[in-house]
Every structure is written in C-alpha cells, then in structure tokens.
Amino acid sequence: MPEMRFVITWPDGREETCYSPSLIIRDFFEEGGAYPIRDFLDRSRKALTIASDRVEAKYGYPCSLARNQLARLEAAGALFLDDADARVRCQNFIL
C-alpha cells in the first residue's frame, strides 16, 4: 500500500509533516491550498479514516498511525477553532 507524507502549516506558522498510509490525501487536499480550520479537520478526518479502512481491508486491522495522526491534527486544530479566519495550508506532498 503506497504511503505518503504531507506538509502543512498551521495558522500560527508552525509546520508539521503528517503521515497517511494511503495516497487518498491527494483527493482531499491540493498542494498550496489553504483551508479553514474546520474544513481542514473535516477533510483530514474523512481522508485518514478512508486510509485506515483501506489498511484494515488489506491486512485485517486498522492503521494505528493514521488514527494517531488524526488525533494529533484534531488536538492541534482545537487551538484555532475559535478563530473564524484560521486557515491551514497544505504545503506539499512527499511520496
């Protein structure tokens, strides 16, 4: 199963390299795209759940790395939920 990483920039300027066990992330984000925080978290939730489900379909168990990545994104994103202008930028994909 092809895995990938994607680099994001949080509204405070902090960069983070994220993990996905599937290329599905490219269906939800564009390189250089900036997403309102709630939209970013919703897209991340959908994409990483699909990615984990694909791992489960192939290997019989969900992807703990995808679940952990989602938990980290949701925890970090929670800090910006009160800021209506907060956006997360998807810088690039690393295959």
Briefly say what this structure is.
With 95 residues, the protein is an alpha+beta fold. It contains three helices and four strands, in the order ββαβααβ. Helix content is 44%, strand content 24%.
Shape: globular
Number of strands: 4
Largest sheet: 4 strands, antiparallel
**β-strand amount:** 15-25%
Rounded to the nearest angstrom, the distance between the terminal CA atoms is 12 Å
**Secondary-structure element string:** EEHEHHE
Percent helix range: 40-55%
Spans where pLDDT lies below 50 across 5 or more residues = none
Strand order of the largest sheet: 2-1-4-3
Mean pLDDT, all residues: 97
Structural class: alpha+beta
Write down the Rg: 13 Å
With helices defined by DSSP (H or I, 4 residues minimum), what is the helix count? Answer: 3
